[in-house]
Specification:
Number of helices of chain B: 8
Number of domains of chain B: 2
CATH architecture of the largest domain in chain B: 3-Layer(aba) Sandwich
Number of strands of chain A: 15
Largest sheet of chain A: 9 strands, mixed
CATH topology of the largest domain in chain B: Rossmann fold
Distance between the termini of chain B: 49 Å
Radius of gyration of chain B: 21 Å
CATH superfamily of chain A: HUPs
Oligomer: heterodimer
Helix content of chain B: 25-40%
Number of helices of chain A: 6
Order of helices and strands of chain B: EEEHEHEHEHEEEEEEEHEHEHEEH
CATH topology of chain A: Rossmann fold
CATH superfamily of the largest domain in chain B: HUPs
Number of domains of chain A: 1
Strand order of the largest sheet of chain B: 9-8-7-10-6-1-4-5-11
Structural class of chain A: alpha/beta
Helix content of chain A: 25-40%
Number of strands of chain B: 17
CATH architecture of chain A: 3-Layer(aba) Sandwich
CATH class of the largest domain in chain B: Alpha Beta
Radius of gyration of chain A: 21 Å
């Protein structure tokens, strides 16, 4: 069984983003592996540990700066790591086109499973996994919190408003991982050292597709509200009543 | 310009989230001078239910077929894409629910459309839309310029629920002919298990949320009790979920759910940016925290400095006294 895991490099959610001269200043950001992608890596490595003959390959679109997250995936237990060159990494559609092209280039037949994180923690659009599935022409379920392989089918569950949905899919399929799917392992120093020596394959992901959205008119979001401190707890009730929320 | 709204059917009625989208789009259409608004609902729902819920101008297509009894994402997406093409709509709107977020990319791909996720919209007089969204964990606002002829939007929740635009029920049309062949079952929804006797945090008007400052799993009883008095539900911050005090489904914030209740009471939540990003649509925010300097107070309308054990039961008592008198 072949498993592809698509991973992304994002700003650490704790780092401060600034808008300067109408553009987002990304130079000061500390870049890390997208947290949702850790669930995707962990799940694929667990499948490898449970079943024999599973090969897990991590893919990341970008530049050599992405080596750090690919090495982290190797340290977590994936077998191979590929850097996808080319493509615009701001537009979901172009990213999906590059990923699908690279996956087709790399594999002679489509992999059985393509794992992604639910979304990247910078743009939170949750579009790429489903777009990749449409481009590869395979089944997909997003934001999965439980997964079990049964023969050539996979059973997954996902959370919906007020409940849990259970799906059956036939492989090959694209699955995006939600928090709760598993608890990603910590990497040992030994595994990190070993991952440093692993080769990273470069795959062509250039595409003629054009961005479908361009972002502009950036501004910082101001979440400040004027806080009125209430000294006597009971006084809050008439205040809320006045605002019409009780 | 033609607008198209995908309405979400659940338990033989329309979801509140998608009715909010319908009403929002009705207002946009009026602002834009856009004459034609289409809606569609797929699944087992009576036309009379649809016409009792959807008001304004336009037509709603109801696509009913036994093959739609279970949600098959690829089949749904194909049916919607074909309906959109049939109406000639340029703008397609969905609620940013679990299902909306799952369907939108599939529909956008089939229409060759751009997809703007989790946005707020304004219309100009020509029917063109300006979509703004946030990037970088909700810290940067940006305008999404669409470069395709057709665009699909998912709309974030807002505390101010849009009112129905008129008292005219829409025209409801049968569109069973749009059921595609059910050959592509893959994937297929097998089963839905709804949580019993519990409303989802993303659908509640009042949320009492707890963070690390609640102090432990057992103290959430105090929050449950306050929420019950208010007719609300309990949510949690990431710290409280990571501690194992609450299930992941209750998590509010960037790595959980975005919520837009009318009243949000944050108990023992420090106010990390990732949490604030998830409550940006909230109406009134009340913060209860021991630390007067906690960042949550800067994002709150009302603040109470004190411990959860002291403040929450007293607040509950005051709420119950008020409701008892009413």
């Amino acid at each position: 069984m072949e498993i592809a895991v698509c991973i992304n490099r994002v700003p650490d959610t704790g780092s401060r983003v600034d808008v300067q001269d109408g553009a987002v200043n990304v130079s000061a950001l500390n870049m890390v592996l997208n947290a949702y992608d850790e669930y995707a890596i962990e799940e694929s490595v667990r499948l490898k540990e449970r079943f024999s003959g599973v090969t897990v390959t991590a893919f990341s679109l970008g530049t050599k700066e992405n080596y750090d997250i690919l090495r982290k995936a190797l340290a977590m237990g994936v077998d191979k790591a590929c850097l996808i060159e080319g493509g615009n990494d701001d537009d979901s559609y172009v990213v999906a086109a590059s990923l699908s092209r690279a996956i087709r280039e790399y594999y002679s037949v489509l992999p059985d499973l393509v794992f992604c994180g639910r979304e990247s923690s910078d743009f939170n659009r949750a579009q790429v996994p489903l777009m990749v599935a449409e481009m590869l022409g395979v089944a997909a379920i997003s934001a999965v919190t439980f997964l079990e392989i049964r023969g050539s089918n996979v059973t997954v569950t996902r959370e919906t408003e007020g409940g849990i949905e259970e799906y059956i899919l036939q492989l090959p399929a694209v699955i995006s991982a939600e928090k709760g799917l598993n608890v990603p392992r910590k990497t040992s120093i030994k595994a990190v050292m070993k991952a440093r020596k692993e080769p990273i394959v470069h795959v062509d992901g250039h595409t003629d597709e054009l961005p479908r959205i361009e972002y502009g008119e950036f501004s910082m979001v101001n979440r400040k509200r004027n806080c009125r401190f209430i000294d006597i707890v009971e006084d809050l009730v008439p205040a809320l009543l006045e605002k019409g929320v009780l | 310009m033609k607008y198209f709204v995908l309405l979400e059917q659940r338990n033989a009625t329309l979801s509140d989230a998608s009715l909010n989208v319908w009403n929002t789009v009705q207002h946009l259409a009026t602002d834009a001078g856009c004459a034609e608004v289409y809606g569609a609902v797929i699944g087992d729902i009576e036309s009379s239910v649809v016409s009792s819920l959807c008001y304004g101008n336009g037509q709603v297509y109801v696509v009913r077929d036994k093959s739609f009894a279970r949600y098959a994402p690829s089949v749904y997406a194909q049916a919607i894409a074909e309906l959109v093409a049939e109406t000639g709509a340029e703008h397609v709107f969905l609620a940013g629910t679990a299902r909306g977020r799952d369907l939108a990319p599939r529909i956008a791909m089939r229409l060759g459309a751009a997809l703007v996720s989790d946005c707020a919209l304004k219309a100009d007089g020509q029917g063109f839309l300006k979509a703004s969204t946030t990037l970088y964990a909700g810290s940067v606002r940006a305008v999404a310029h669409v470069r395709t002829e057709i665009a699909v939007y998912t709309l974030g929740a807002q505390a101010n629920r849009p009112a129905r635009i008129s008292s005219n029920p829409v025209e409801v049309r049968n569109a069973d002919a749009f059921c595609p062949e059910f050959s592509g079952w893959n994937p297929l929804l097998e089963e839905v298990r709804y949580y019993t006797a519990r409303r989802d945090i993303s659908e509640s008007d009042i949320i009492v949320a707890g963070g690390r400052g609640v102090g432990g799993r057992d103290n959430f009883v105090l929050l449950e009790s306050l929420a019950e008095a208010l007719g609300g539900v309990v949510g949690a911050s990431r710290s409280a979920v990571d501690e194992g005090w609450r299930p992941h489904a209750d998590q509010i914030g960037q790595t959980g759910k975005s919520v837009a209740p009318k009243l949000y009471i944050a108990c023992g939540i420090s106010g990390a940016v990732q949490h604030l990003a998830g409550i940006s649509g909230a109406g009134i925010v009340v913060a209860i925290n021991r630390d007067r300097e906690a960042p949550i107070f800067r994002a709150a309308d009302y603040g109470i400095v004190g411990t959860i054990e002291d403040v929450v039961p007293r607040l509950e008592g005051a709420v119950r006294d008020f409701l008892h008198l009413k």
